[in-house]
Amino acid sequence: MNSSVYVINPNSSQTVTAAIDAAVAPLRSVDGPGIVCLSLTEGPPGIQSQRDVDGVIMPMLRKASELEESAGAFVIACFSDPGLHALREQSRRRVFGIAECGVLTALTLGQRFGVIAILPTSVPRHLRYFGAMGVMDRFAADLPIGLGVAELSDEQKTLSRMIEVGRTLKSAHGADVLVMGCAGMARYRAALEEAVGVPIVEPTQAAVAMAVGHVRLSQAFTP
C-alpha cells in the first residue's frame, strides 16, 4: 500500500531536516501513514535566493520520481515551495507546499496574517507568491529577522529576533496570526506563540497534517 508521506527538504542541511523531523513527530501514529523526512543532497546549505529556489527544482523532481511508488503524498519543505506545480504535474500523488499550506492554515486562525522571514531578500519572493495565491487582502506584513538558514541554530539569537519581529507584526501591522517563513524555524513555534500571544503556524506541520489527513482518508475509501 502506498502510505509514506515524504517530506523533502530541498536544501542539504541535515540540521534543518532533523528540526523538521522533530516538528512533525506529533503527527506520527502507529497506524500510519509513515512520515519520512529527507534532505536533498544536491541542494545548497540553505535556500536564500531565487537562484537557489530555481536550482533545486530538477534534483527534487528526480528524488520524488525515485520515491513515487512508495509515496502516499509529498511535502516540499521550503517556504518558497520550489517546484510545487512541476511536481504536481509529474506525480500521481498529492503534493503539498509548506508556504501554501502555512498561509491557508493561517487564514483559518485569524483575519490578517503576518510572516516572519529570514532575510530581507526573501520578502519580495514571498510577496510574489502571496500575490499569485490571491491572499493579499488578508496580508499584514512580511518582516525579516536578518539571519540566514545556517544561523538559525543559534537558539538565543534566533528566538529573540523572532519575538521582536513577531511583536512588531502584531502591534504595528495588525497581524493576528503569524506564519514562520522558513522550515528551519520549526523548533521555536511554541516559545514564539507564548511570547507574542497570537497563533503561530509552523508551515511544515501544517502541510504534513494536510498530507497525513489526505492519505488516511484516501486509504479509508480504497476497497
UniProtKB/TrEMBL annotation:
Top-level lineage group: Bacteria
Pfam families: Asp_Glu_race (PF01177)
InterPro entries the UniProt entry points to: Asp/Glu/hydantoin_racemase (IPR015942), Hydantoin_racemase-like (IPR052186), Iso_Racemase_Enz_sf (IPR053714)
Protein name according to UniProt: Aspartate/glutamate racemase family protein
Lineage of the species this protein comes from: Bacteria, Pseudomonadati, Pseudomonadota, Alphaproteobacteria, Hyphomicrobiales
Family to which the UniProt record says this protein belongs: Belongs to the HyuE racemase family.
